[in-house]
Amino acid sequence: MRELHTEEFIVNMGPQHPSTHGVCRLVLTMDGEKIVKIEPVIGYLHRAIEKVMENRTYMQCIPMMDRIEYVTSMSCEYVFSLAAERIAEMVIPERAEYLRVIMLELNRIASHLLFYGVTAMDIGALTPFLYGFRERELIVDLFEMTCGQRLTYNYIRIGGVSRDIPNGFEQKCRKALEIISKKLSDYEGLLNENPIWLKRTKGVAILPKELAIAYGVSGPNLRASGIQYDLRRNDPYSIYDRFDFEIPVRYNGDCFDRYLLRLDEIKQSIRIITQALDGLPEGDIKNKKSRQTFKAPAGETYARIENSRGELGVYLISDGGKKPLRVKTRGASFNHVQVLPHFGTDMLIADLVANFATLDIIMPEVDR
Amino acid sequence: MSYWPIATLEFAPLFSWLHEKLQATGLSETWVATVSYIVLGSIVFGVLSLVALYLVWWERKISAHVQQRFGPMRHGWHGWYQTIMDAIKLLEKEDVVIEKRDKIVFFWAPVICFVASFLAYVAIPWGDGLIVADLNIGILYIMAITTFTVISLLMAGWGSNNKYALLGGMRSAAQIVSYEVPMMASVLTIVLFVGSMSMVDIVKAQTGWVWNWYIFKFPFGPIAFITYIIAATAEANRVPFDIPEAEQELVAGYNVEYSGMKFAMFYMAEFINMFTVSAIATTLFLGGWNGFAFIPSWIWFLVKTLGVVLLLMLFRWTYPRLRVDQLMEFAWKFMIPVTFANLILASVIKYLGWYW
User: Could you write out the DSSP letters of every residue in B47-116?
Assistant: First the structure.
């Protein structure tokens, strides 16, 4: 009789798989249920946006930036505008700055609500998915009210914003925030003390501090590993230095902390928006020089902001023409995919799914 | 002599009419019995298909309302014939098969799954006397026949020549084998007190109002009921124990390569299995067909069973999924000790005659 033996086998998780959040392919070497090796393969969603932008005028680049990361497209528009404004040394009107902060933070909440739903679904709880989407709908409605779009907004312009908020926006926004902060306790009640949820996330896929720094992990994933680093504080942009808010930080670096940290961030974002709505000044919403024929003087700069996934940066080189010479974007998800194979080998396939979900990786940002 | 089931008050006229007609044709007793079993089998099959169809619709409605949606609304009042349309769609669909499958195993897996799920209904009493065959080993037979499902899932996993399907099949084998043990132990607690494995005897032992039902009758009842429900959830592959078909990990698990009617057979078998475990729970713990006198017994049975089904459905839409190792840990480190302790204590009490 032949001796019984076991062998490792290779599973292609993706590019079409329900929980890879886009088209990521993970080549898993597995020993039964255990994962021995993870090898991410990226590039399935590459649309050459950076190259396309070299053939567009500055204003035409903004809707292109939307597509880089469609879950928080406001922040993508913003970071490109920020880079262009820094080269052109443009002054932004007060009201426009406030509106930008409101929109950025609303978008951060929307992104985190989506995270809540999707993570819960990946761990097997199907209902929170729709709860997360229900509250996200309120924010998306606000965006639709303001700029007519629900996903790719094309709202923030170089030198300001494209249009003022309509009548009734403020009341509706406050109401939405009130509902969201009320529903947050529902969310926490649904999962935070659920024994199955705790078993699936606590102590799973721990990202140590050193590893996080070594691989350039940023955003909530870094803060969940115990490093208080947030570009809104550490490299202030816009008018974030005027608001009173905290940078939540947690120390275990496991899936549970990454999940909790994002819920904490929603609360802080609500605080920022409330303050911004209170202090919203009257005035222009756009710099006079902000036109379709905007031209940046020759020069180069790197602008970076904290979006809902981490550091989002744009390196912009201008030769003084109508079009940018080179645009390079830095997405946080790229680094998060990169760190994926280094979480240790005692992971099961279910842990990998939980890890992928709580790292909040989104593929368009990786491939661009 | 009776090959023929003792028909209830409600169904008696119909059945005796059929029986008389058959005997009047001058067939031998064996043929009469054969024909009547075929008729009965068809009736049970029809009723169960209807039940499965409506459980699908019900599950969709319940999930929708848990998630603050409407669910199916287009076909009829609140989409009442949505599943019928879905079934027609699945019938029309192309039966896509993969080239490198294991042909025989791949073909027979859904058939075995489907047939095994129906076979349990030979011994399940739908009402007072409304049973196909009152086997003296009823519950043992049901437990044995429902475990056939695991073979079909393994076959589906192997025959598909797909790694996700294989993982799903292996998971389901491990899971069902583990949870069979605590399930059997909690069932035995009841069998011990009744002193019979016949499903009819078990129900008759609970004649009377609520306090005679085994869930309330003595302290072992509730423990056995809860452990049974947990094990049954695992047995029916429902959340939080749905790891064989964990969508987010294994795409669809063992049925990933099946399409059209073959997929529908797995799908229907899943819902019938859910109904089966609920029917067993009703019979063993909730007094079976017993209830108020003026409501027909089969309605009581259906109401209780659907109540248990509702419980299982609510589990599904409110809980996350366990990981495969945690699932096994739960079975071997918690469920089995608890059910065995329960069983041993119950037998001591029974031996000493201290029960009431």
Answer: HHHHHHHHHHHHHHHHHHHHTT-----SSSGGGTTHHHHHHHHHHHS-----TTS-HHHHHHHHHHHHHH
- Judge whether A237 and A301 are in contact, CB under 8 Å: no
Cβ contact, residue pair A127, B323, below 8 Å? no
Cα–Cα distance measured from residue B256 to residue B247, given in angstroms and rounded to the nearest whole number = 10
Distance to chain A for B95, nearest Cα, Å: 21
Q: Give me B162's structure tokens.
A: 């797909």
Longest dimension (CA), chain A: 87
- Taking one residue from A and the other from B, the number of pairs with CB-CB distance under 8 angstroms is 82
Contact between B269 and B261 under an 8 Å Cβ cutoff? The reply is: no
Confidence at B345, pLDDT banded by 50, 70, 90: confident
> Residues B63, B52: contact at Cβ < 8 Å?
no
Q: Which residues contact A98 (CB under 8 A, 6 or more apart)?
A: A239, A276, A279, A280, A281
Tell me what pLDDT residue A1 has.
Answer: 66
Enumerate the residues of chain B whose CB falls inside 8 A of the CB of residue A116.
Answer: none
Using CA coordinates, name the residue in chain A closest to B241.
A124
Distances (CA, A) of A15 to A19, A22, A24, A27, B247: 10, 8, 5, 10, 15
**What is the DSSP-derived secondary structure letter of residue A351?**
H
Cross-chain Cβ contact A197/B320 below 8 Å: yes
In B, which residues are within 8 Å of A17 by CB distance? 251
ipTM for this model: 0.77
- What the block records as the tokens of A211 is 């590893």
